[in-house]
Amino acid sequence: MRTTIDIDPALLEQLRLEAVRRGTTVKALLNSALRAGLAARVAEPHTAYEVHTVSLGAPRMDLDRALQLADALEDEEHRRDLQLRK
Questions:
Q1: In the chain, N or C terminus with fewer CB closer than 10 Å?
Q2: pLDDT by residue (tens digit) across 21-41?
Q3: pTM
């Protein structure tokens, strides 16, 4: 089957040199490279993803009041900004 693809000129030169070195054609070299690449991708084993956890210890603050803490920190930052502007 015929198709048209754009190959980077440097890559095409490498393909031509490799085809000459192997004593084959660029077409045959491309076909074998594509077959090998697709076969390797399919044969790739799927490994389970593992998450390793570590204990960070007990929280240093009451996390039930996290929004209140965030508001207090934001208020403190605004006060600092206002003092620096004076």
A1: N
A2: 999 999 999 999 999 988 876
A3: 0.47
